[in-house]
Amino acid sequence: MNAKKEPSIWQGFKAFLMRGNVVDLAVAVVIGAAFTNIVNSVVKGLINPLVGAIGTQNLDHYSSCLSSSCKGDQGIQLMWGSVLGATLSFVITAAVVYFLMVLPMAKYLARVEARRKAREGTHEIIEVTELEVLKEIREALVAQRGSGHDER
After folding, report:
1. pLDDT category, 3, cuts 50, 70, 90?
2. Helix, strand, or coil (residue 64)
3. pLDDT: is 64 or 144 the higher one?
4. Engineering a disulfide at 75: which of 11, 25, 67, 108 sits with its beta carbon 3.0 to 4.6 angstroms away?
5. What is the CA angle 108-114-120, rounded to 5?
6. In the prediction, which pLDDT does 6 show?
7. What is the distance between the alpha carbons of residues 146 and 135, in angstroms, rounded to a whole number?
8. pLDDT at 125
9. Terminal CA-to-CA distance of the chain, rounded, Å?
10. Model-level pTM?
11. Cβ(75)–Cβ(69) under 8 Å?
12. If you write DSSP's letter for every residue of 115-139 in order, what string do you get?
């Protein structure tokens, strides 16, 4: 009976934690949580006052009534101001993440890749040139041997 020993739960958990994508995900969650405060501050400090110039600073107060009377909790209200506020928060978050994180990182990675390809290209040119020189040396040696062999 040759039974394979299965890894313990603890070993599996350690292997899971040591994967690179889990660590990246944890960092992303922490940065995202901190970034939420920045976005909320932008919405409260910039967007809401701009909207407040037209009406109220709190977008939650914007609503439409679908029934004949919407006093207090009675009636059917569409709270479109809340949806607009959440949409603005999402768009601002997406824009800041794209323009301040994704776009610069993509440009940086493209530059690194271009440098790497340029280095590989010069390396290949040098190798080809060295190979050609070695072939010429070999041909010269063969020619010398041939000419020296005929003189005897």
Report:
1. low
2. strand
3. 144
4. 67
5. 140
6. 75
7. 16
8. 66
9. 78
10. 0.48
11. yes
12. HHHHHHHHHHHHHHHHHHHHHHHHH
